[in-house]
Specification:
The complex is a heterodimer.
Chain A lengths: L16 H34 L5 H21 L1 H6 L5 E3 L1 H10 L8 E3 L8 E3 L1 H16 L7 E8 L2 E8 L27 H11 L3 E7 L2 E9 L3 H6 L5
Chain B lengths: L27 E2 L9 E5 L3 H11 L4 E5 L2 H10 L4 E5 L7 H11 L4 E6 L2 H7 L8 E4 L4 H28 L9
Parallel strand pairs in B: 2-3, 2-4, 4-5, 5-6
Antiparallel strand pairs in B: 1-3
Helix pairs in contact in B: 2-3
The chains are: A alpha+beta, B alpha/beta.
């Protein structure tokens, strides 16, 4: 954490009003889209069954597009999920890392994983932490064409520490914590939710996130605390 | 879209609901319950959602429709079902409370909750002591068919096991008549 910007990335930091409002907007939009998209999926299914020889390629293409919409909705839903109570389960750091890498698809090949899987089980929301990790890795991979990212992980006193370092060029704001706000982006094709999601996940797990721009790349540290089920029930409010 | 129905030409004869609108409707059995196929009740306040879901399931199961949780409960009291597929957000009783009520009264009925509300479930479902399948919209319709089929199988096996246990625990009468 940089000394001149205390607060935003420190353990126990709260989510901003903008984050909570954005999370609510995502829920509202997601719910408004869900019904019509489901009706579309049902009608495509019926069309394929009633006329199996007709426009198969077009139906395949439409179903692929719908799959993309489904994945986008799931990714967006991570923010409101992180703003509500995390769903704690016992899992290994290895499982979290594998799930995070899986979210990247083929891009995971550009991640150099130098991880000694920390032993033992952690009490965290596995899906949330894996999503936060994926967002940070994705951010590093998008820092330059063909950028590579290194990932390290360790556990210290019940906390899981990730270090993500890229070799790209990212135009970070000043102060850098502004990037944790939803909808902040310097990219042309980005919603600006990746770091907001990672930050919300860190807060939900009483952890922290720290971004350190440096010559030749950026180093990001994400820390999440292993929560007991009792802590999980407290959550961070129902945003 | 063609409305699938085996009700003697009365397809889509839901009272008080226009296509694509929300609102009250009478419970409609779209096909005569067939014990072998399994009887599924779809509960959704939106008529177009009921009809497209019905069309997805009708080739494999006997299907009935209800426009609200209250209608669904009244239907199950009259005509037992093996699976309910319910939307979450509806006027009156919501889908999650409907599942709780159904499980309390009809233990062997399998429940499938469909919703686009991801965060609502995060905060509520874990606090409830009921089991159900969850499908997040937009789900793959093939997945719904699989979930319903498995629910019917599990319900029948559980019921058979319960019957067997009850029978075997009865005292054995001595002698023969």
């Amino acid at each position: 954490m940089r000394d001149d910007n205390p607060g935003a990335g420190e353990p126990g930091a709260a989510l901003s009003d903008k984050t909570l409002i954005t999370a609510r907007a995502i829920v509202a939009v997601g719910h408004a889209l869900a019904g019509p998209l489901q009706a579309l999926a049902n009608r495509m299914f019926i069309l394929r069954r009633t006329a199996p020889q007709t426009n198969t390629a077009e139906l395949d293409a439409m179903e692929a597009e719908l799959g993309g919409v489904r994945r986008a909705l799931d990714r967006l839903a991570t923010l409101p999920h992180a703003c509500s109570a995390p769903q704690i389960e016992a899992c290994s750091a290895d499982a979290i890392i594998n799930e995070g890498l899986a979210e990247l698809g083929n891009d995971a090949a550009r991640v150099d994983v130098a991880v000694e899987p920390p032993p033992g089980l952690l009490s965290v929301d596995k899906r949330l932490v894996a999503s936060a990790l994926a967002e940070l890795l994705r951010n590093g991979l998008e820092s330059a064409p063909g950028a590579r990212v290194s990932l390290r992980a360790s556990t210290i006193e019940g906390e899981l520490h990730f270090t993500i370092e890229d070799n790209g060029v990212t135009a970070w704001p000043e102060p850098v914590e502004l990037a944790f706000e939803p909808l902040y982006t310097t990219k042309t094709r980005s919603l600006g939710l990746g770091l907001a999601i990672a930050h919300a996940v860190a807060v939900a797990h009483k952890g922290s996130i720290d971004v350190s721009p440096r010559p030749g790349g950026t180093l990001v540290r994400l820390t999440v605390a292993s929560l007991s089920p009792g802590l999980a029930a407290e959550g961070v409010g129902n945003g | 879209m063609r409305e699938h129905s085996n009700d003697g030409g009365q397809a889509g004869a839901e009272v008080g609901a226009e296509a694509g609108t929300r609102g009250a409707s009478e419970v409609k059995s779209t096909s005569a319950p067939d014990p072998d196929r399994g009887h599924v009740l779809i509960v959704d306040d939106e008529r177009s959602a009921r009809l497209t879901t019905e069309a997805v399931l009708l080739d494999d199961f006997s299907v009935s429709l209800a426009g609200s949780a209250e209608e669904a409960l009244a239907h199950i009291r009259r005509s037992p079902v093996e699976v309910i597929v319910t939307d979450l957000v509806m006027p009156g009783m919501n889908g999650l409370d409907l599942i709780v009520q159904v499980k309390k009264e009809w233990h062997f009925v399998h429940a499938v909750l469909v919703t686009g509300h991801r965060d609502y479930l995060n905060s509520r479902s874990s606090a409830l002591d009921v089991t159900f399948d969850l499908l997040l919209k937009p789900y793959n319709p093939s997945e719904l068919i699989q979930v319903v089929r498995r629910g019917i199988q599990v319900g029948r096996l559980t019921r058979a096991l319960s019957d067997l246990t009850r029978t075997s625990s009865k005292p054995i009468r001595e002698g023969r008549s």
